[in-house]
Input
Amino acid sequence: MDGLHEATTVVGNTDDANVVAADHNNNDGETHSEKKMAKSVFRDCPYPDEKLRKDLSERLGMSAQQVKFWFQNKRTFSKGKMQRWETQNHWVENERLKTEHQAIMLAMQNKTCLKCRGVMVQTQDTSERQRLYTENMRLKEELLHATTYLKEGLRRNGMSLSWARN
Output
């Protein structure tokens, strides 16, 4: 909303001049009340139609083109602000994850329990652990086949197994 008002020359120090100076923002030429009204409309409708832009231009003393560009600039600024906020949040989350990763890696190197920070006692050798892992995988596969077989049999008989996973 650049160029809302023409430059005003005030001679003397009258109360009216103080009000105009207090209400006027020298950066972009719009008054605080005009900014407040435009921002209020922007919150409700960031993409105003031509009718609303025309109404705003009349109320703010601007051309419809100026109102259009103000909304365009405000959307761009808001999007940039949101992206900076998201980037900052991602950076903080990334730092938190890095710290967590370092703690896990250190715990793995020192073989400490992540919950109690105590020294982990390894009771089984690697070959026993591998054997148990393989047996666990075999048993899971066997359970999957048995459940599938049971479901198929029940389906053929018009029944269902409510506790089984789909």
Observations:
- Residues 122-166 form one domain.
